[in-house]
Amino acid sequence: MKPNQAFAGRQVSVWRRYGLVVIACLLVTLLTAPFRDTLQLANAVMLFLLVVFLVALKLGRGPAVFAAFLSVALFDFFLVPPHFTFAVSDGVYLITFAVMLAVGLLTTGLTTSLQDETERVRRHERETREHYELARTLTGAASIEQVEAAVASYAAHQQCRVRCFWLTPERQLDTSHSELVESHLLQMAFSSQQPVRGDAEAGPPPLYLPLRAPMGMRGVLAIYPEHMDGQDFLQREPRFITLASLLAIAVERLHYVDVARQTEIAISAEKLRSSLLAALSHDLRTPLTSLLGMADALAARPLPEAEREAARLIRDQAGAVHKMMTNLLDMARLQAGKLPLRREWQLYEEVISTSLQLLRPTLAAHPLTLELAPDLPLVRFDAVLIERVLCNLLENAAKYAPAGSPIRIRAYTEGDAACLAVCDAGPGIDPAQLERLFALFERGDAESGKPGMGLGLGIAKAIAEAHGGSLTLSATPGAGTTACLRLPLGTPPSMVTEDEHEPG
Amino acid sequence: MSQAELRILLIEDEPHIRRFVRSTLEAQQWTVYEADCGQRGLVEAGSRQPDLLIVDLGLPDMDGVALIRDFRHWSQAPVLVLSARSDEADKIAALDAGADDYLTKPFGVGELLARVRALSRRHARQLEASPLLSFGEVSVDLARREVRRGGVEVALTPMEYKLLCALLRDAGKALTHRMLMQAVWGPGHTDDSHYLRIYMSRLRQKLEQDPAQPVHFITLSGVGYRFQF
């Protein structure tokens, strides 16, 4: 620690300080010399020591030591008889010199170390205050830009320039704005989570500090010293480490503020969407229920045939509208990714039987064949949604295959998938058209294309994919279409067989 | 209670739905009382003592499930729930609260009448309770623990027989997976519903004419099962 640091700031040059010492000592000599015969020499010694003390207080250690020696020399030369020579008449004066020098040096030592200590405490206090100010600014910062500005202004006080390197969305360090060598050093600091020192042609090397926050790495802070020597820079390293940890915490706080805000937005958007869907679904279903019910009741009455037929038509059309509405609402839910899956281990045969039951009138015109492989395993799926898939596939088959042509339902395993296939003997769709049918819904563009068929298939596909499975269509023009749902097999839960337990 | 003189209370807030349900039921010479909200429904139920209750789950003033629970405190009359298609959880809650069956909106006249008849028959059957039951070509003698199909004895494992009995006991009623698991396997197994599915499949294999298109052991997707004669 340099004792004259306080003065360094005031630009008092070394020469000037030593000059001042010389002047002060000469002044004392001049003041005391005329009275050297009347004045007790001990008093003169006091004056000299006072000068040494003042010099030590004001000008620092070097000048004070110099003043001590100079004082002894001047005292000897001008005041101690014989005058104007360094020769000493009385040996006692040698003791005086020694004591004078010792007291001077001791005073110097005590004074300057006291000053050093004061200076150290003051600096420490200033540092703490700066850190406190920085922490306060960082806590109040509402954006990364404000954080960067606060850090830059702190660093400027430390005669440094800083650059912050943050993370990419993939949680990697973004070094795209740095040179090759530097980017390497940044990565090193990032992956080792340890400070890394760079190399520099002139002056002290830059320092790369990892920004490690409680929940993980947030980036790297690069510190470039300016107008500073290496020793000084090294001494300041602890504050830079403090700076880095404050910065990391501030950035993490901002990150979580952001996450919280995003979540809040997502939640309120989701609430709005689901309440909208629920309201829509209720408001559409209610009139449809009365419409369908009343038409059905009308059709059961003893009316002229033409009117009965009209009532039946209204009923069937209301049913068709309801089906379409269900599909649309499901599609909206699926696209929002918010259709909860109630997956349970179950058998395909149950879905087949419930679908056939639901579609009995629709499928009446087609002979059905069921091919269930023996010992089909349990598959994990949402029964209601997979029933929707199968119903959509069966409805398509019934719609596009001519009346009277057979529809085949097959359930089997193939590799690690449980397959459920619906084959019709219709005209078969053109393969190019098939692709278009699916693509329509992957883009979420439901405005073009064949409405009835596409929507049902789009939903079926979306449901299959939500289960981690797939839906494929294959067609042989002229020989029918096969739609195949594949769900992953997984490991069904174990079953304790009854025979081991309680023999029947 | 015979089907000829059924007294039904309909609790539904939508006037159009109420009107068509009422006219459908009245065409069968049944008496229909109406209520347009839950509170009035409970009052009517208390004063009219209906043979059957039809409740919409989406009432404006109170939760339909709470209404059913309340009603069950003092009446054993069958309860038929009207519910929206996508609300399997609501249906299960209603069944757990004591409802007997449900109808998914929109529904036709035929479905409505079939459910009402089945529930009123079920209620009547509970009153007579005979140890000899039969459905399709299957006959069950509960007293001798004997199941015959077309006159030939069918071997059922104890668990299969237990499940069959649970289904027969509540024939015509929609039973959730949890209810059946609890009845057959006990309270510790209510989450292992795959057991139930496997055993149901075996019962169908043994007792249904066409196991893939069952007429007696009916699956209620996402809800449970219903046995019907």
TrEMBL record, chain A:
Annotated catalysed reactions: ATP + protein L-histidine = ADP + protein N-phospho-L-histidine
Keywords (A to Z) from UniProt: ATP-binding, Kinase, Membrane, Nucleotide-binding, Phosphoprotein, Transferase, Transmembrane, Transmembrane helix, Two-component regulatory system
Domain Histidine kinase: 279-491
Alphabetical list of InterPro entries matching this protein: GAF-like_dom_sf, HATPase_C_sf, HATPase_dom, His_kinase_dom, HisK_dim/P_dom, HisK_dim/P_sf, Histidine_kinase_KdpD, KdpD_sf
Entry membrane topology: Multi-pass membrane protein
Main location: membrane
Localization annotation: Membrane
Record keyword Acetylation present: no
Transmembrane intervals: 18-35, 41-57, 64-80, 92-114
Native species: Vogesella oryzagri
Protein name: histidine kinase
Signal sequence, renumbered to the chain: none
Enzyme Commission number(s) of this protein: 2.7.13.3
UniProtKB/TrEMBL annotation, chain B:
Pfam families per UniProt: Response_reg, Trans_reg_C
Domain Response regulatory: start-end pairs: 7-120
Residues annotated to bind DNA: 130-229
Domain (OmpR/PhoB-type): residue spans on this chain: 130-229
Keywords assigned by UniProt, alphabetized: DNA-binding, Phosphoprotein
SMART domains cross-referenced by the UniProt entry: REC, Trans_reg_C
Superkingdom assignment: Bacteria
Modified residues (4-aspartylphosphate): D56
Protein name: Response regulator
